[in-house]
Design goal:
By secondary structure, the protein is mainly α. Helices cover about 40% and strands about 5% of the residues.
């Protein structure tokens, strides 16, 4: 009986180690980060592109939930106006161009990582959590040779 107890965990570990390389080497379904997900969904008749969202935000039409998350992640002492300034030029390099205003030390806008983690990982019926299981590797990419994490950036599709 004791042989079976030690054999089972060892077998499970061996099986996991055999499967892990194939999981790591699998094709990335979201190789371009933000712009891989924020696309036109023809099947659902929905346009999730950030240019569409930006057009709404610059017109002052910001979803109440997003506005609350933005306010929660704002730097201390800075008031949010509920309208995003014009930033069409940022759509050519998403998310890198967003960091011009949303950098970690920003004093005028919510820091990018704090805001995006609130948006993508919290809230009831959050699509990123319910559909994509909140998987960090959809956005953050691991360089298997160096162990460094990065976020791809590029134009909207």
């Amino acid at each position: 009986m004791s042989i079976r107890r030690s054999f089972t965990p060892a077998f499970l570990l061996l099986a996991a180690l055999m499967v892990l390389p194939s999981l790591v080497m699998a094709a990335d379904p979201f190789p371009k980060g933000c712009v891989s997900c924020h696309t036109v969904d023809k099947a659902k008749g929905a346009d999730h592109r950030l240019s569409v969202a930006m057009a709404q935000w610059t017109a002052g039409k910001v979803d109440a939930g997003l506005l609350a998350q933005s306010k929660a992640s704002m730097p201390a002492g800075v008031a949010l106006k509920g309208k995003h300034p014009s930033a069409e030029d940022s759509l050519e390099d998403i998310p890198n161009a967003c960091l011009d205003c949303h950098d970690p030390g920003s004093k005028k806008a919510p820091p990018f990582s704090q805001l995006l983690h609130l948006v993508h990982l919290t809230g009831a019926n959050n699509v990123f959590v319910t559909t994509f299981k909140g998987d960090c590797t959809h956005c953050h990419k691991l360089d298997a040779k160096t162990g460094a994490w990065s976020m791809p950036s590029g134009p909207e599709q």
